[in-house]
Amino acid sequence: MNYPSLSNLIEKLKSSPRVKDIFSTGTTATKMNPSSDIDFVVVLDKNTEEIKSVYTTIENRFSDVFFFDIEFLNQLENKTEVSANNFDGMFLEWLMSGKIEHDPENLLVTLKNKIDRNPPLQSIFDSEKRDLWIKTNYNFIANSRYYNLNDELYNKALEFRLLYSVIELITAYFSFRGIPWRGEKAAVKYLEEHDSEFFSIFQKYAQSNTLDDKMNYYKDLFNKIFFGEYQKWKEDFIVPISQKTGYDQRLLDFWNNLLK
How far apart are CA 109 and CA 32, in angstroms? Predict the structure, then answer.
């Protein structure tokens, strides 16, 4: 490595008996540019501390150090299907595209070779799709109500709501289509190549200066995210929500019994 502070940090980590494996990810594993952060993964013997990550600076760059353990590797090795958008799917992608820095027992090499030969299916689970289906429909109804009131306070609040509502539309677009979320840069590349119309509407939204324009483009984006069984709610919608599992169609029977 050409970054002394990073090399020194990795050497210190390698000397710890708790650290079993290390690999770098992203541009840290390939070629960093002036705006690159530093990302790498540390595999512990057993993550009894339940540490997820450490944010710090290395070489005057933002750095994110992710932590896993041997048990996580063993469980991952035996899975035939993983959730693409949680750490199972991300770890696999990081490992396959990353650079191994420390692997004295060949645990990472063994896992990497096995995945290369027989990669597990990376899926967007229905629970994630349902959550976004509820959020995007619910927020569209609420945002439309705020907008139609034509009230100054509600309009100001709507400006806040649109900030998170639009990014939910984008993540839902990918989720409904079973496309793993791999960050904003990957999303831009995908949309430019596969759905330039959707991306063009988003750009117009981002460049809008009035609430009227923002709301119109937000509506256009909303109408274009749906795919397969995940569609816009009809006027007579009934969507029961469980305390434990979110949307649960079985609760329709309970609701209907109450109405009897």
Answer: 24
The span from the CA of 187 to the CA of 170, in Å, is 9
Read off the tokens for 56: 């710090």
Strand order in the sheet with 19-24: 53-58, 61-69, 38-44, 19-24, 99-102
Where b means 16+ CB within 10 Å and e means fewer, 172-194 reads: bbbbbbebbbbeeeebeebbeee
pLDDT tens by residue, 53-84: 999 999 899 999 999 999 999 999 889 999 99
CATH 1.10.600 fits 126-259, yes or no: no
What is the value of pTM for the model shown? 0.88
Q: Which of 168, 149, 146 is nearest to 222 (CA)?
A: 168
User: How is residue 201 written in tokens?
Assistant: 């509407």
- The model's confidence at residue 138, banded by pLDDT at 50, 70 and 90, is very high
Q: What is the mean pLDDT of residues 2-24?
A: 92
Distance CA 260, CA 106 (A): 64
- The superfamily (CATH) of domain 4-123 is Beta Polymerase, domain 2 (3.30.460.10)
H helix runs in the chain, sequence order: 4-14, 26-29, 70-77, 87-97, 107-117, 126-149, 152-176, 184-194, 196-207, 211-224, 251-259
Q: Where are the domains of the chain?
A: 4-123, 126-259
Confidence class for position 2, pLDDT limits 50, 70, 90 = low
Mean pLDDT of the chain: 94
Stretch 42-52: mean pLDDT: 97
